[in-house]
Amino acid sequence: MEANSVFIPSCESGGAFASKQCQQGGQCWCVDPGWCQLQGLQCRPDGSFAPLQCDVTSCWCVSENGQEVGGTRTSRQTGRTPSCDRKN
């Protein structure tokens, strides 16, 4: 993958990462979707990251390329989640 390209993951219909990921050009590799779910990583059926990501302790917003948006991490103990609205 080129340094300036952005990889968009493949996902199952339930939002988990597909076990086989491929980039344009044909290079493929395997991932463990169970591990991704344990880490709280979620994506949309079209392969883009869901704006709101949560694990067992907190929730946070991510950019379109899956990078955490600074200042958005919120403890689940508060009972609130950050607003992660972003234009697609």
TrEMBL record:
<dbReference type="GO" id="GO:0005615">
    <property type="term" value="C:extracellular space"/>
</dbReference>
<keyword id="KW-1015">Disulfide bond</keyword>
<protein>
    <recommendedName>
        <fullName>Thyroglobulin type-1 domain-containing protein</fullName>
    </recommendedName>
</protein>
<dbReference type="InterPro" id="IPR000716">
    <property type="entry name" value="Thyroglobulin_1"/>
</dbReference>
<dbReference type="Pfam" id="PF00086">
    <property type="entry name" value="Thyroglobulin_1"/>
</dbReference>
<dbReference type="GO" id="GO:0007160">
    <property type="term" value="P:cell-matrix adhesion"/>
</dbReference>
<feature type="domain" description="Thyroglobulin type-1">
    <location>
        <begin position="33"/>
        <end position="84"/>
    </location>
</feature>
<dbReference type="InterPro" id="IPR051950">
    <property type="entry name" value="Dev_reg/Prot_inhib"/>
</dbReference>
<feature type="compositionally biased region" description="Low complexity">
    <location>
        <begin position="70"/>
        <end position="81"/>
    </location>
</feature>
<feature type="domain" description="Thyroglobulin type-1">
    <location>
        <begin position="1"/>
        <end position="32"/>
    </location>
</feature>
<keyword id="KW-0964">Secreted</keyword>
<keyword id="KW-0677">Repeat</keyword>
<dbReference type="GO" id="GO:0005604">
    <property type="term" value="C:basement membrane"/>
</dbReference>
<feature type="region of interest" description="Disordered">
    <location>
        <begin position="66"/>
        <end position="88"/>
    </location>
</feature>
<dbReference type="InterPro" id="IPR036857">
    <property type="entry name" value="Thyroglobulin_1_sf"/>
</dbReference>
